[in-house]
């Protein structure tokens, strides 16, 4: 369990005879197994300079491959306990609520925000001069996740076939973003939709917004659906 210096009052069971207000610290927890595997960092410098107070000085936890909420700022103490810690910021806030189909029923399940999900996005599109009424395009983007190696990134234009993009050879550090590019070829002038999807070595495919995994999710944490980009191409 990792506790920051910041605290906040929380009221449990409000407006009932069992109402209780307590002061709770910002705290996040990891299993002992995850703690030993993840090569956690206790950061006191960044780029050779002391951390700024606004970014967590004097000491900040860094959890590689997890969402930033796990990177506890102003770290004050670390504890080891024999049961799961379910404080406000593990069990009631920063919690994902997602529906799961069980037969004809949808059952909603809550889970604490933890490992990063596989995600890619197209960030930039360039063009060359029009030829024979068509405009050649090239797209660039990035893919990232929890440290699981990437197998591929695929890109689709409008409702066409998925096509493999080229992953940059460097950098290939475990938790680093990986950049990609793809020549899309000539397209007709007008409005087009581009979208990418990441695929990791375990066969995990970045889901579309219409997939149950995303469509049945009720919270905005962990936004990792395929992200279509709409562009207007002029001749």
> Rounded to an integer, what's the Rg over CA atoms?
22 Å
Could you list the spans in which at least 5 consecutive residues all have pLDDT below 50? Answer: none
Estimate the helix proportion, in percent.
under 10%
The structure class reads mainly beta
Given the structure, what is the number of helices? 3
Mean pLDDT, rounded to whole units? 95
Kindly identify the CATH topology of the largest domain: Immunoglobulin-like
- Total beta-strand segments: 17
Shape: globular
| Element string (H = helix, E = strand) | EEHEEEEEHEEEEEEEEEHE
- Overall tally of structural domains: 2
Strand proportion: over 45%
Q: Kindly, what is the distance between the CA atoms of the first and last residues, rounded to a whole number of angstroms?
A: 58 Å
Oligomeric state of the chains present here: single chain
| Biggest β-sheet strands, sense, barrel | 4 strands, antiparallel
Which strands sit side by side, in order, in the main sheet? Answer: 10-11-15-14
CATH top level of the largest domain?
Mainly Beta
CATH architecture of the largest domain, please? Sandwich
């Amino acid at each position: 369990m990792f506790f920051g210096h910041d605290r906040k009052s929380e009221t449990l069971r409000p407006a009932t005879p069992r109402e209780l207000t307590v002061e709770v610290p910002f705290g996040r927890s990891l299993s002992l197994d995850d703690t030993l595997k993840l090569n956690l960092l206790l950061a006191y410098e960044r780029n050779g300079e002391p951390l700024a107070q606004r970014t967590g000085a004097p000491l900040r936890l860094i959890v590689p491959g997890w969402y930033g909420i796990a990177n506890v700022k102003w770290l004050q103490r670390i504890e080891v306990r024999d049961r799961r810690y379910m404080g406000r910021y593990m069990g009631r806030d920063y919690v994902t609520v997602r529906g799961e189909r069980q037969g004809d029923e949808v059952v909603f399940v809550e889970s604490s925000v933890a490992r990063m999900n596989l995600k890619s996005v197209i960030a930039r599109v360039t063009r060359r001069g029009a030829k024979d009424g068509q405009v050649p395009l090239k797209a660039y983007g990035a893919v990232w996740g929890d440290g699981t190696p990437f197998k591929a990134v695929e890109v689709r234009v409008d409702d066409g076939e998925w096509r493999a993009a080229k992953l940059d050879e460097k950098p290939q550090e475990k938790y680093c973003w990986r950049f990609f590019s793809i020549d899309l070829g000539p397209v007709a002038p007008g409005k087009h939709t581009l979208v990418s999807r990441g695929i990791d070595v375990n066969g995990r495919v970045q889901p579309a917004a219409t997939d149950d995994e995303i469509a049945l999710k009720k919270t905005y944490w962990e936004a990792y659906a395929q992200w279509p980009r709409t562009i207007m191409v002029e001749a």
